[in-house]
Amino acid sequence: MATNVNAEQVAVGKAEDQYANFIASLAEKAKTSRIYQRYKVLDSFLHLDSYPGPNGVPIHVEDAKLSLISFDKSGNLTLTPNIKEHELASKVDMDSSRQIFIVENITPKVIRLFGGLWDIDPQFFLDYIDAVPAGMDITKEETSPRPDLVTTAWYRHQAVDGYLPILKSMSTRYDHVSFRFVGPREYRREDSCKVLERMKPDMKKMNVERIAGLHVPITRKLGKGGRQFDNVAMARHCASIWFKQPDDSNHSEWTKAMILVDPPFEPENGETMYGTRADSAYRSFICRPLPNEVKERDQEPRSSYRASLAHILMHEFAQGGDFHPLIITQAVARIIASEWISTSAYIERDLNTLEWRLENDEPGMIILESSLKKLFILRRRIRKYQGLVDEQLNLFRKHLPQAWIATYAPAAEKAKAYMEGDFEQVRSTILDNAARLSETLGLVTSMIQIRKGEQSAKQNDRLSFLTVIATIVLPFNALAAILGMQTSWGPGNPDFGRFWFWMNHVAKMHAKSV
């Protein structure tokens, strides 16, 4: 028995080494050919646990969390909700039995093991990591927690090939799909203070760097006992799905599946700076329990995407769902679509608050300019969200992997139609917000012009008055200097009154000294 275990360990170790060496050979070619540039990302990640950090100590690698849904030959399901990373090799079957591994917070060990044993295309892991070598970032705007990798942000990179998308006609040849989306999370703290709006990740809790933009809701008037809306972290996430199928397989013959998801986003100094993080707020798409049901339905977990996805898949299969790749993909797509709708809801709430304030208040220039800046931020985010959702909608319409849709299956066609419908709904909410934002932007711009006109009229009145006073009291040169000031201390600007106060005080002191 011990001999068999040792033989299995040797085989697993050999497969891991072969896969790591294969990636290293591709990364080595990047020295002479740019088309291999991105493989340096995966090669660096595979050496994450030995890469020296800023203080010379190897970077900390948090263990991955895994859930396993396995099928026996009779089609019975078993869920193993929590698998330790050191137990993984003993859980992977190399026979034709079906297994779905849901991996949270991927590690070098997980990539080497699954990649080596299941011969996985490295592009699957590259699409999920979604980073570029640090040498491509020529701006050095911030110090990355990973000195060798930086998150994808095309406008900061020297080599455009690091972020160019694949042609859609080629994507159907892959055996995987990847989704980039935003997962909003509320942060509550009892006191209000200024916080950083670009939230840096706590890399002690995640191995793949993700970032988040802090959405600070527009303030509103409060009634008795009221409080402001909680801040929301708009965290960028990625999810990837892969199926192992023989070359001549149809939809019922896949044997292995892997789903990569991110852990919950945790910022540096999270509780201290931002407060307590809430779980996902999206509306459940599992039917509510009915009054006459004898057995109470399980409560859907929201602590992580891994836990939610495992629960949803088990619920789907328990209802007699097909095992087609699109049925499994639909579970992931529903979570993503639900997160998109939550994201749109936060933006819509902000637009409604701003419109209400414009209707009921008399905002001054400072408030209007602040609102204009807020609208610019929302516009940039909406444009990015719209691009990602359009990409995902087109994927479901006509760019799914050919191996997944080669054989017709009624349940799969139904799932495909449902995914298209869900993302049409998401796209509609984003377009509605974009149109509403454009109208509000025009309104705020018009109000700023009106305020400037009113300000100019007041300034002219003051200048007329000052001209009369100056002809009596001040020399012409002094008057011209005062009227020509273009700073905030000049005529018509907020600090002009303070300027006259201090000048009057100085004049009195000068008169006494004389």
Give an overview in words.
It is a single chain. The protein is α+β, with helices and mostly antiparallel strands. It has a domain at 2-312. 48% of the residues lie in helices and 13% in strands. It contains 14 helices and 11 strands. The chain has helices at 2-28, 39-46, 88-91, 108-118, 122-129, 168-171, 270-274, 305-318, 325-360, 365-398, 402-405, 410-473, 476-483, 496-513; strands at residues 65-71, 77-83, 99-104, 131-133, 149-151, 176-188, 198-199, 212-215, 231-244, 256-261, 276-277. The strands form 2 sheets. Strands 1, 2, 3, 6, 7, 8, 9, 10 and 11 form a 9-stranded mixed β-sheet that branches. A hairpin with a 5-residue loop joins strand 1 and strand 2. Helix 9 packs antiparallel against helix 10 (365-398). The N and C termini lie far apart (108 Å). The mean pLDDT is 81. Keywords: Initiation factor, Membrane, Protein biosynthesis, Transmembrane, Transmembrane helix. It is found in: Membrane. The chain crosses the membrane at residues 463-483. GO terms for molecular function: translation initiation factor activity. This is Translation initiation factor eIF-2B subunit delta.
Layout of helices and strands, plus pairs?
Layout: H1 2-28, H2 39-46, E1 65-71, E2 77-83, H3 88-91, E3 99-104, H4 108-118, H5 122-129, E4 131-133, E5 149-151, H6 168-171, E6 176-188, E7 198-199, E8 212-215, E9 231-244, E10 256-261, H7 270-274, E11 276-277, H8 305-318, H9 325-360, H10 365-398, H11 402-405, H12 410-473, H13 476-483, H14 496-513
Parallel strand pairs: 3-10
Antiparallel strand pairs: 1-2, 1-3, 4-5, 6-9, 6-11, 7-8, 8-9, 9-10
Helix pairs in contact: 1-2, 1-4, 8-9, 9-10, 9-12, 10-12
